[in-house]
Design goal:
- The chain is α/β, with parallel strands linked by helices and 532 residues long.
- It has three domains: 2-113 and 229-306, FAD/NAD(P)-binding domain (3-Layer(bba) Sandwich), CATH 3.50.50; 116-226, FAD/NAD(P)-binding domain (3-Layer(bba) Sandwich), CATH 3.50.50.60; 341-531, 3-Layer(aba) Sandwich (Rossmann fold), CATH 3.40.50.150.
- The chain has helices spanning 14-25, 57-70, 133-136, 154-161, 180-188, 284-314, 322-325, 330-338, 350-356, 373-380, 392-404, 407-411, 444-454, 487-493, and strands at 2-10, 30-34, 74-77, 80-86, 89-94, 99-107, 111-114, 129-130, 145-148, 168-171, 192-193, 198-204, 207-213, 218-220, 223-225, 229-232, 245-249, 252-257, 271-273, 363-367, 384-389, 413-417, 430-436, 456-467, 499-512, 519-531.
- Strands 1, 2, 3, 4, 5, 6 and 19 form a seven-stranded mixed sheet that branches. Strands 22-21-20-23-24-26-25 form a seven-stranded mixed sheet.
- Strand 13 and strand 14 form a beta hairpin.
- It binds flavin-adenine dinucleotide.
- Flavin-adenine dinucleotide binds next to helix 1, strand 2 and helix 6.
- Flavin-adenine dinucleotide binds at residues 10-16, 33-40, 42-43, 46-49, 79-80, 108-110, 113, 126, 135, 233, 236, 275-276, 282-285, 287.
- Keywords: Flavoprotein, Oxidoreductase.
- It holds the Pfam family Methyltransf_25.
- InterPro entries: FAD/NAD-bd_sf (IPR036188), FAD/NAD-binding_dom (IPR023753), Ferredoxin-NADP_redctase_2 (IPR050097), Methyltransf_25 (IPR041698), SAM-dependent_MTases_sf (IPR029063).
């Protein structure tokens, strides 16, 4: 299985299946990968699910699977073990060695209920060891219920369960002394309090019999309530840059979750979350609703990408993979700048510094100027600089940085909104034309560099720098080899009678590897040439 999907849904519980239903009905290709350990699996029935009240969890999911498969979505059993970026989306690796690719990810992996370490609890979890009165309260109504204080919400839980049964006992266990007003409120509602450490929960055959205390007493109970720690199943997302946050109820930390917008969009573009992984207190119907909401947001996101690609295609970027083509659109760059207050360091590129120090300042053009780091450095040295970029946001920031650098720098800089793929700067005008790390695919690149060379005045300098193809595999780079070039290639395109090539080389540079932090040597392609 080495397939590509519009959306890979990781986790086939209510949230994932509901998202997959809406996405497959929106004519998206969808794969659901599910490990089959839904949170409520131990429970006999799903309650509070309108229209399907009391359905066994497995039956509800089987219905959901049939529904999504009828619209063409695919469901496989498996565990996703690794997520990587690439190919205009994400690589998804399964434990059994299968790999798939998704343009977007809907992560609906749910949460793990971490049970308190009390003997006897785990084996009866979901049957008569309970956590949620809305899920199980009706089933144990009027029965003998014990609430063991295993978390900060224990007193609240005892009061809540009292709604379903008049026979509720609170075991403060290791909670410590209860404040007077808490005692009073418990007594007022007829809730018994039995102090002493709990050492176990006991059963006779398939029937819970009671709560054992350290002094040997067995307090007869028919159902026991505990608070679990709600831990988001989100380890997969760490390598993509997504961490969990603490979920609080009031001051009490009850677990973790993956922060996201109400749409399910996370801080990592293209990754959406829904259900218990994002909202640990959510129930089945709410998780299904969240999956639907995220599906709508994902579809809108994909449509936005498809519009960008179509626009790029109209501009002549046909024949290039959609995720590459969209990199040459204003919308793509606007999105990138919008996501962060500063995309670049603000420092000038090293080759610009070394290769222009000996030049007499004149008129310069910086193509793909971004937030203006290079252009402002040149302006400080006395150059009159035109910075050109496709992103209005980048240009606004560049102008603001120039203004902050002082009136003389601001007066020497001009910012031009231009798409380098179609823009022709004035021929023979500039004493320096610089393009640093402007990567466009083969075919378009030759035409772009030829236009930049044309803009160099007699005696002026063309300075082009970029990532060298040999870096691929050394450090993470977009998996689009045709974007990278060598200085030698550009030199070969310059007519020797018009140009003196001063440098056409792969210059080594040592950087920290972004993932391992180890020092590695990479190379920049550099072309410096002087028009005769
Ligand atoms: C005992 C119990 C009873 C409950 N009863 C009710 C009830 O009656 N009514 C109600 O509304 N709510 C109930 N709930 C809450 C309900 O279980 C959750 O709200 C609901 O399951 C959340 O749905 P979800 O899709 O977010 O996650 P889940 O249903 O937990 O589904 C997550 C899925 O993701 C899969 N997964 C995780 N990691 C991976 C991976 N790496 N690769 C592939 N798959 C993965 C899991 O195996 C699982 O199948 C109960 C909870 C418990 C614990």
């Amino acid at each position: 299985m080495n397939e590509r999907y519009d959306v890979v849904v990781i986790g086939g519980g209510a949230a994932g299946l509901s998202g997959a239903l809406a996405l497959s009905r929106a004519r998206r290709s969808v794969l659901v990968v599910d490990a089959g350990e839904q949170r409520n699996t131990p429970a006999g029935h799903v309650h509070n699910y309108l229209g399907r009240e009391g359905t066994p969890p497995a039956e509800l999911l089987a219905i959901g699977r049939r529904e999504i498969e009828s619209y063409g979505a695919k469901v496989v059993t498996g565990t996703v073990t690794r997520l990587t970026r690439g190919g205009g989306g994400f690589g998804v690796a399964l434990a059994d060695g299968r790999h798939v690719h998704g343009r977007r990810l809907l992560v609906t992996t749910g949460l793990t209920d971490e049970l308190p370490d009390i003997p006897g609890l785990a084996g009866r979890w979901g049957r008569d060891v309970l956590h949620c009165p809305y899920c199980h309260g009706w089933e144990v109504r009027d029965r003998a219920v014990g609430v063991i204080a295993t978390g900060p919400m224990a007193v609240h839980a005892a009061q809540l369960w009292r709604q379903w049964s008049a026979d509720v006992t609170l075991f403060p266990h290791t909670l410590g002394d209860l404040p007077d007003d808490t005692w009073e409120a418990l007594a007022a509602r007829g809730i018994a309090v039995v102090t002493g450490e709990v050492t176990g929960v006991e059963a006779d055959g398939d029937r819970l019999t009671g709560v054992r205390l350290a002094d040997g007493t067995l307090v007869p109970r028919e159902a026991v309530v505990v608070q679990t720690r709600l831990r988001a199943r989100a380890d997969l997302l760490g390598p993509l840059g997504l961490e969990t946050a603490e979920r609080r109820v009031g001051d009490a930390v009850v677990g973790t979750y993956v922060p996201a917008e109400p749409t399910g969009a996370t801080a990592v573009p293209g990754v959406y979350v829904a259900g218990n992984v994002a909202d640990p207190l959510g129930q089945v119907i709410g998780s299904a609703a969240a999956g639907l909401t995220a599906a709508g947001a994902i579809n809108a996101d994909l449509i936005a990408e498809e519009i960008r690609v179509a626009v790029a295609a109209r501009k002549g970027v046909e024949g290039i993979a959609p995720h590459v083509a969209e990199m040459f659109t204003e919308a793509y760059w606007e999105d990138r700048y919008a996501g962060r207050s500063a995309l670049w360091s603000g420092r000038p590129n090293p080759h610009l510094v070394t290769d222009t120090e000996d030049l007499t300042p004149g008129e310069a053009l910086d193509v793909g100027c971004g937030e203006g780091g290079d252009a402002i450095w040149l302006a400080r040295r006395g150059w009159r600089v035109t910075g050109a970029d496709i992103s209005p946001t980048a240009l606004e920031r560049a102008a603001a940085h120039a203004a902050a650098a002082g009136d003389d720098v601001a007066a020497r800089t001009t910012w031009v909104h231009a798409d380098a793929l179609s823009w022709t700067p004035e021929p023979r005008r500039y004493d320096l034309v610089s393009a640093q790390f402007v990567h466009v695919p083969t075919g378009l690149r030759e035409a772009l560099f030829a236009r930049l060379a044309d803009a160099v005045a007699p005696g002026g300098t063309l300075l082009i720098g970029g990532h060298h193809p040999s870096d691929v595999g050394v450090v993470p780079r977009p998996d689009v080899p045709e974007l990278f070039f060598t200085g030698e290639e550009i030199a070969a395109s310059l007519k020797p009678d018009e140009w003196e090539v001063q440098a056409a080389e792969a210059r080594p540079r040592t950087v920290a590897h972004p993932e391992t932090g180890q020092r590695v040597t990479i190379h920049d392609a550099v072309l410096r040439a002087r028009r005769r």
